[in-house]
Amino acid sequence: MSQISKEHDATAGALQKYLFEHMTPLNPHMARLRADSLQDPMGRMLGASDELNFLRLLLGTLGAKKTLDIGVFTGYSALSAALALPADGKVIACDVTDEWLKKYNAYQVWADAGVADKIDVRLAPALETLEALIAAGESGTFDFAFIDADKQSYPAYYEACLRLLRVGGIIAVDNALYHGGVLKPEAEMDANSRAIHQLNEKAASDSRVHASLLNCGDGLLLCRKVQ
């Protein structure tokens, strides 16, 4: 059974800690927000630092300027993306509430990091925000999307993000192994595991993307739009 591979998880072993210690060090503002977020019992939801480090590398390789962050939590992944973007870059950060952002002073951390003007927080159900972007004519204009929100909506987020991405853009889906839940017989999966499994199955056979499922963090599904 797959286990979460996050350096801050209670089950993290020597390998996860070694990975964390042997990557480009966290930006001090990321380190601050990470440390504050991990004081909360819900801090386990925070993205794995090695995963976000890898995604920042991808953003730089893509030359990304316009990205989506679906599921903002304490603002860690949005900050990570914003730090990787050029001065004229933009992160559209989608969530139903900014309660966690306020609790951990994310707005101030973003400002201190010099990226507050790059992060545009949209408070509404994420699918509504994505559909509004499509309706506004922004299909095919985004370089990257990171999905880490309510799991049963993953398939819908995937479809909307695929419309919004340019050819060559990448969708990154977090929790793609969902604590090993996707390994169970489908009849025994909970609703979240089933939705994620169905998305993994779909992406693997989707001619619109080149998909790769990685054992990174709690599983990372990468889909590069090819048509």
Automatic annotation (TrEMBL):
The keyword Oxidoreductase does not apply. It comes from the Eukaryota. GO terms for biological process: methylation. Keywords: Methyltransferase, S-adenosyl-L-methionine, Transferase. CDD domains: AdoMet_MTases (cd02440). Signal peptide: none annotated. It holds the Pfam family Methyltransf_3. PANTHER family: CAFFEOYL-COA O-METHYLTRANSFERASE 3-RELATED, O-METHYLTRANSFERASE-RELATED. Belongs to the class I-like SAM-binding methyltransferase superfamily. Cation-dependent O-methyltransferase family. This is Putative caffeoyl-CoA O-methyltransferase 2. It comes from Amphibalanus amphitrite (Striped barnacle).
